[in-house]
Specification:
This protein is mainly α and about 160 residues long. It has helices spanning about 1-35, 40-70, 75-115, 115-140, 145-160. The termini are far apart.
Length: about 160
């Protein structure tokens, strides 16, 4: 019995740590997007924040499913499973609403910028810089076709400034 309680304590600590890590990861992207004075930098951070939120939402969905699976079992894991599914459900809802909020802010900023000639020129310059950056990353990973190379390419695009 002692081993089971230790295991459940360890498991709940892992779930709490994972939840805190994912939320901190997500909020760091959102904070960077909101603080940024430069629109191009903010648009880049917003896109990366949305990617982070998508990853976080999937993790919360998996946590919810694992909780529901544990809840179906009899015994000790039933209450723990309910807690896991509740955390997963609430986390999933939070990430979806954050993603919607980022999208609305991004849309409003683009709408304001597109009304002036200078804003449109800035948007065009940002798009061209992003295309150039993607071209350079694609050129660097051209001769590599494996999964590890694809992961490296995705990481390079995420870590890139634009």
């Amino acid at each position: 019995m002692h081993i089971i309680t230790e295991f459940l304590t360890l498991k709940s600590s892992a779930v709490k740590f994972l939840t805190m890590f994912l939320l901190a990861f997500t909020f760091s992207f959102v904070a960077a997007e909101n603080v940024s004075p430069n629109h191009a930098f903010a648009a880049s951070k917003a896109a990366k924040a949305k990617k982070g939120l998508k990853f976080t939402g999937k993790a919360f969905d998996k946590l919810k499913k694992a909780g529901e699976k544990a809840q179906k079992k009899r015994g000790i894991s039933k209450g723990f499973g309910k807690a896991m599914s509740n955390i997963g459900r609430s986390g999933s809802k939070a990430t979806k609403s954050l993603s919607k909020g980022i999208g609305k802010v991004q849309k409003g900023t683009n709408k304001i910028l597109s009304k002036s000639k200078t804003g449109r020129a800035m948007q065009k310059g940002y798009r061209n810089a992003g295309k150039w950056q993607n071209k350079q990353i694609n050129k660097a990973f051209r001769n590599c076709r494996g999964r590890a190379c694809q992961f490296g390419k995705d990481f390079a695009k995420t870590a890139a400034p634009l």
